[in-house]
Design a protein that fits this description.
Its main location: membrane. Pfam families: MFS_1 (PF07690). Keywords: Membrane, Transmembrane, Transmembrane helix, Transport. This protein is mostly helical. It has a single domain, classed as MFS general substrate transporter like domains (Growth Hormone, Chain: A), CATH 1.20.1250.20. Helices cover 78% and strands 0% of the residues. It is built from 18 helices and no strands. The longest helix has 31 residues. The two termini are 37 Å apart. The N terminus is likely disordered.
Amino acid sequence: MKMQAEVQTEVQTSAIRESALNKSQKNILCIVTLAWIFDAFDYLLLTYIAVDIMKEFNVTAAVFGTVTSITVLARLIGGSFVGVIADKWGRRIPLITSMIWYGIFQFISGFSPTFTILYGLRFLFGLGMGSMYSVGVPLLMETVPSNKRGLASGLVEIGFPAGGILASLLYGSMYSTGGWREMFYFAAIPPILLGIYAMFTLKESKRWGQEKSPTQSMEKVPLLNLFMGKQLWNTIHSILVNAGFLVLYYSISAWYPTFLKVEHHFTVAMVSVVTILLNLAAVLGSILFGYWSDKIGRRWTITISALGTMIGAPLFVMLDNNTLLYIGAIIVGFFGPGGVWSINASYTAEHFPLRMRSAGHGLTYNAGNFFGGMITPVIIGLLSAHYGFGAVMTTGVLCSSAFLIIMAWIWKETKDMDMSI
């Protein structure tokens, strides 16, 4: 009995040790999370300075919305191409390169003399942005213990709300009307410094290294394999569910600062406060739902958080009651960019086997972003002229939330999936 108890204690101790994050895993988690925060920080700044850029270059909301769309297209191209490279030669170098790349083109964007030049530079920026997520997430999901994947995903997915908070703080404290170029310069510094830090501290995925054979060739992991055999439905589902994720996100965030200024006549300080509230709630929701997803599974995480988002949707755009608007922003932030998005990293990565995970993640996330993120900002920009931003944004939130619930229940539960194969 004593020997049996000792063996059981040793097994339990080993399990605890295996489930805890070591120094290298924590470093990868920090780098990928910070990379996504800075990525979002750069990207979301555009929503705060949109009005002044439109004025300077004399373009409409619908035309300006195509800047987001072209960035999304670039993310699809960059994420897919670099994802294949990462499956062939490893995750580390593509991740480092992508961070420095998007930082450089963020900086150069501030020198744009015309709208056309800005348009082209945002395309180049998007190539790096798409690459970062498609490589960084598989690296992290292959590194952390299986019972911590949901939590790790939730921590990574604080990236966009945390980046939104940084953008709000910068906008609220330093922005002067018309001074949009300086925002680009400032936002470019963090990702470049992070990329340099990662050069010296980031390690390659051990699981990728173990699976990689010396004779493996690029032909064994082409994008075409994602659409063959049993993998076909996984790939299609991942594209569809990511499209739902992105329609939800862009319906909430793409035009929210503009909506508050144009339809609610908020000052710079008031816009900053409301968006900070929404994003703080999202950070909390992402961490909590990410943790819960390891307990209750991905299906119920999506279902509960999507329902919560639907409840808050009509409130966060209320025009005649500031109190309800603040409450709605908190509810929508907690359940939408927080709860729903908490599992995006783990859920997407769990659709693919190791040999094609980075390519699959890069293609399907960014393909979903192409359909959901490229079209949504333009449609909202167009329809807002007739129906107002509030009504169009609410419709997008309600429809995408319902769609995500359906998608969650027509696919398998994956929280216990083995990421080593």
